[in-house]
Amino acid sequence: MNHYTLQNLTEMPSRHRANLINSCTGYKSCNLIATKGKNQITNVAIFNSIVHIGSNPPMLGFILRPTTVPRNTYRNLKESGFFTVNQVQQDIIADAHHTSAKYDESISEFDKTNLDPVYLDNFYAPYVKDSPIQLGCKYVNEYFIKENDTILIIGAIEHIYLNEDIIHPDGWVQLDKAKTVSCIGLDGYALPKLLERFQYAKPDQETKSLHIEPKNKDS
């Protein structure tokens, strides 16, 4: 087994270190964040740092890299107060990855890929049409992380759109049925498969399976 010390990591070429650290911490969520500025120019960018903040009220967060260079997503969501989070499914991974290219702020990534914006229920920011799970969010707050000059953005979830056939009766969403992918590091994409789902764990009680296929509405 390879062993890397902090000194080893510090002395590594930056790209090698970034690949190692980004991938060894495990699979990450894979989402497209879409925004629109006051200039009406849209932006869509891939993020692997979306995290659950809470369900009551429903909130999520994501990490924004240092703003020492232009960050169109950040500018747009601060101007408008809104953004959407769209899960990436296997058929759009190449276009989703391409949104990480550094285009000028006057150019929309929607125009440089086969991704299409769609507007739902008068929400200001666009959603990604081919995403199977779409969240409409309102900017709530941000927290500066002084250790590496990044920003934790907090958003309130105001809208959720997803197909009925991936929702279980208890509200649990089976992501593998939506064919949403996970990120490995900065440039790897994987298609997870559900292995098991368990009941709520209680002390000194046997762990029991909860893996039951959702029933068809018409059955």
Describe the structure.
This protein is of the alpha+beta class and 219 residues long. The protein has helices at residues 6-11, 14-24, 72-80, 93-98, 175-178; strands at residues 28-29, 31-36, 42-47, 51-55, 58-64, 82-87, 117-118, 127-128, 133-145, 150-162, 182-184, 188-190. The strands form 3 sheets. It has a 7-stranded antiparallel sheet with strand order 3-2-6-9-10-5-4. The longest helix has 11 residues, at 14-24. The protein is globular and about 55 Å long.
Write the layout of secondary structure elements.
Layout: H1 6-11, H2 14-24, E1 28-29, E2 31-36, E3 42-47, E4 51-55, E5 58-64, H3 72-80, E6 82-87, H4 93-98, E7 117-118, E8 127-128, E9 133-145, E10 150-162, H5 175-178, E11 182-184, E12 188-190
Antiparallel strand pairs: 1-11, 2-3, 2-6, 4-5, 5-10, 6-9, 7-8, 9-10, 11-12
